[in-house]
Design a protein that fits this description.
The protein is mainly α. Helix content is about 75%, strand content about 5%. The protein has seven helices and two strands; from the N terminus they run H-H-H-H-E-E-H-H-H.
Length: about 300
């Protein structure tokens, strides 16, 4: 079999491919540069558009505000001028009305004063003697002390003696009342001293012994929850504090151990008096029924067996 050997030179092809690779690299660089330039241009364009939009929006808002401000300013000026004109008109009307009122009031005052004078003259002329007596003579009689200030008063001896007897009798009666009051006061003081001497003991106790003292226990509700508080009252001025404390403790214990009186009729007199006051009251029936119900609810209840 025949063999053919061919020698192909690839050097030109390789050189051409190298040129193509260089051109491709240059094209790639140009594309990258163009892309960067496009991105920068788009960014600049977007910034420019945003700036223009913002400027336009600001200008529009400012223009609208300026237009409204000018409109409101013109309306304010017109209304202010109108109010000023109305004020001047009202002041002028007020001045005219005051002048007319004063003129009319003076006219009618003069007219009514003349009518009053004429009517008074006519009325006085109807019964002149009676009018003269009431206006002239009565006035002189009432003010006779002023007209007769320099006249010496003169009285008869009999009237002076009678008046002196009356004054002396009045003084004696008042003195008798004062003496009776002093007598009753002294007698009451004597009775109190006698009673105090019977009650008080002058002897000083030097040993242990029984003594009786007046004490008072008061139990009441302290708040709206029904909590009950017991207070003890004793003559602490004549006792030592330890004695007062001991008596208080003993009384509290004895008070709590003492059975409570549960008789519903123990305060019958109070109940009768309360019902009498309710019956005499002019309050409505509903108010009286509620008062009776509250009174009954405050009475102590019987213990259930």
């Amino acid at each position: 079999m025949s063999t053919f050997n061919y020698h192909i030179d690839t050097q030109p092809l390789a050189e051409e491919m190298g040129n193509v690779s260089k051109n491709v690299n240059l094209t790639t660089g140009a594309v990258v540069a163009m892309q960067a330039a496009v991105v920068a241009a788009e960014e600049r364009a977007s910034d420019l558009v945003c700036d223009n939009v913002n400027r336009g929006f600001y200008s529009l808002i400012r223009s609208q505000i300026s237009q409204k401000l000018a409109k409101y300013k013109s309306e304010y000026e017109s209304k202010r001028m109108l109010l000023s004109h109305q004020k001047r008109a009202l002041v002028s009307i007020k001045t005219i009305m005051e002048r007319d009122y004063n003129m009319i009031s003076k006219r009618y005052t003069k007219l009514f004063n003349g009518l009053n004078s004429n009517l008074q003259t006519r009325v006085f002329e109807v019964d002149k003697p009676m009018i003269d007596f009431s206006y002239r003579d009565i006035g002189r009689m009432t003010n006779r002390s002023k007209y007769l200030t320099a006249v010496v008063p003169l009285t008869q001896l009999e009237s002076v003696a009678s008046s002196q007897k009356i004054v002396a009798s009045n003084i004696k009666q008042r003195g008798l009342n004062a003496i009776n009051s002093i007598k009753a006061f002294i007698l009451e003081m004597h009775n109190q001293e006698s009673l105090a001497k019977k009650i008080l003991v002058d002897d000083i106790v030097t040993r242990n012994s029984e003594a009786y003292l007046p004490v008072a226990l008061c139990e009441f509700e302290n708040d709206s929850l029904g909590n009950r508080v017991t207070e003890f009252f004793a003559p602490g001025e004549s006792l030592h504090q330890a004695a007062v404390t001991s008596i208080s403790n003993a009384l509290h214990s004895e008070f709590h151990n003492t059975p409570q009186n549960q008789d519903l009729y123990s305060k019958q007199e109070v109940r009768n008096e309360f019902l009498k006051l309710i019956s005499d009251s002019k309050k409505p029936a509903r108010v009286r029924d509620v008062a009776i119900e509250l009174f009954n609810s405050g009475l102590p209840q019987r213990e259930k067996s």
